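Section 5.1 Outputs to date
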Amino acid sequence: MHNTLTPWFSNTAKPVRPGNYDVRNVVNADETLVASWDGKQWFRAGRSKENSYPLAVQDREWRGLTNRGRRAANRFAETT
């Protein structure tokens, strides 16, 4: 089975596209959280921009969906 997540990217690399990503906790790298990248900075993912806030530490390791993962997510969204 193919992985639907990309490898982890370094904290100095930033995503090319805005969206939600897994980011590593800066205190405990075994923990992750979902953060939203707006093209300039990371925000705690919320249901709306008003419910989000910028993360205190902006340099974070992150990973996103592979093409396979995006297709699966799109199929799921179409059925809900």
